[in-house]
Amino acid sequence: MSMQIFGLHVSRGVAIGRAVLVASSRIDVAHYFIDVTQIDAEIARLRQARDRVGAELLALKRDLPEDAPQELAALMDVHLMLLHDESLEEAIRLWITERHYNAEWALTAQLDVLVRQFDEMEDEYLRERKADIEQVAERVLSALVATHERPRSAWSSAWSLGAGSGPDAGTEGPLVLIANDIAPADMLHFKRSVFTGFVTDVGGRNSHTAIVARSLDIPAVVGAREASRLIRQDDWVIIDGDAGLVIVDPSPIVLEEYVFRQRQGRLERERLSRIKHRSAVTLDGERVTLMANIEMPEDAQSAFEAGAEGVGLFRSEFLFMNRGGQLPDEEEQFEAYRAVVMAMKGMPVTIRTVDIGADKPLERLSNAELRHEHTLNPALGLRAIRWSLADPSMFRRQVRAILRAAVDGPVKLLFPMISRASEIRQTLDILKRCREQLRDAKVNYGDVEIGAMIEIPAATMILPVFLRHFDFVSLGTNDLIQYTLAIDRADEAVAHLYDPWHPAVLHQIERTIRLAREAGKGVSVCGEMAGDLEFTDLLLGMGLRSFSMHPTRVLSVKQRVLRADTSRLARMAGQIMEAEEPRSLAAVMSLDGGAGI
């Protein structure tokens, strides 16, 4: 029977495919597809783990003290019986042979099936036996993890499906991912995976997972609460990213409608490609620069092919993630930054120093010099420039690598989350020291423009101080909104309060753009608002002439720019800034991405 699940729409478009559930487990296990040649070895791993657990249970039963309750011995017998149940083993083996799941994934997938079956039983005693199944499965998972070297992240290998591994797309059809949550670093693997969309139980519209989904142009719904419990392995699922709707086992008529919508989306992208090589100039002759945000060096090629006029934000922190705490050295970073500079063929590249913390944590470092412990509020803790200044040797390595890469093309150096004059002085002192170190070592380095992210209300209030020290500023609207409104953008419980149209937010953005332009300094927006058509006209009306967004958004925003008259938009923006409810007035004026001009 068809079922609808509602969540938050975070990335537009439609995805249709069979559900792949990453079952939650108390043990963090890897989920990845295996090659057909590995099937027998994977089944053997499963059996070895089962035998190991069996030996442990027998030893525990043998060593029970004489006065132990008889129920304990009986419990051991129940667990041994479940462990050697032939039907259970056969079901797990089918996940391995037919879907090419690794042993851990196959076990958790079958556990998910069994748990549902037990939950549906009317007999209370039988329902309570679910715990026995879970305990046995956890023991086998522990044995598998302990004897197999794979990345510990449950996601780190799930995405990379090279030729010859994973399900045959021609046979299985498209796949969509269903999970409780997906870490930001793991989201990056989506672009190399077979998954065409995803649904998560948790997350807000502006959580980092949602942001990356939008930037990658992946249909997605987050905050769907019970999705991973209600959706079963291999269910046919439609993800309606426009409505925040998930349809499970759709009827033929509904499926046909969404297939048509998918086709229309592809046609629209083809139409947009016709303006790829046109300059972004408004109707009244204002030149607008449209750049790209990237996470990894290989993304630079996508930025170039999308028609971006440079990289407005290279989020360097993703070079530091999924490494088990082993940070990249200066040479590795230099090669990564240089690859981006070379790929952009003379167009400017803005590299932001590492912005670790909050929803982008590092694994715990192995050295005792600097460790990241769990904090009550990581968004307000040791992150971004604070983290860099707390580890100056790491910071200097990164800055030197960026300066060296500037030899091969125009580079801008961007520092995140600076909030006070003392941090500006410390940061510039380190930059000066890095130049001296390279000069003393006779290592070539290039000139760079230096800039600061404006993403904290404190920074907007003392903006003239920033403009005296920096060549440009870049508005990070995601954090600026979060900190202005005291809203955790990753928390679906308060996601409805995260409001980019709030007058306090708009006034800070307008003031930053105006003061920077008056000072003759560069100013851009690199947050979500830059690639959101709902705000393109308003930002143009505020005087913004430099946008940076994910490559997939460049052509849509360019089309909007080509239809804009900035003199008219400036007048309308002024009226909107004075309104108590800016969004309502913008909708009336068609400045919210609606009918357009």
Flag low-confidence runs: 150-171, 364-374, 593-597
Kindly report the CATH topology of the largest domain. Answer: TIM Barrel
Shape annotation = globular
What spatial order of strands do you see in the largest sheet? 1-8-7-3-4-5-6-2
User: Which class best fits the helix and strand makeup?
Assistant: alpha/beta
At the first level of CATH, the class of the largest domain is Alpha Beta
Beta-strand percentage range: 5-15%
Question: How confident is the prediction overall: mean pLDDT?
Answer: 85
Rg over CA atoms, rounded to whole Å, is 27 Å
Total of helices: 24
CATH architecture of the largest domain: Alpha-Beta Barrel
Binned, the helix content reads 40-55%
Distance between the ends: 44 Å
Characterise the protein shown here.
The chain is of the alpha/beta class. The chain has three domains: 3-22 and 157-270, Phosphohistidine domain (Glucose Oxidase, domain 1, 3-Layer(bba) Sandwich); 36-146, Enzyme I, Chain A, domain 2, CATH 1.10.274.10; 276-588, Phosphoenolpyruvate-binding domains (TIM Barrel). Helix content is 45%, strand content 13%. It has an eight-stranded mixed β-sheet. Strand 5, helix 9 and strand 6 (220-222) form a beta-alpha-beta unit. Helix 1 (39-62) packs antiparallel against helix 2 and helix 12 runs parallel beside helix 13.
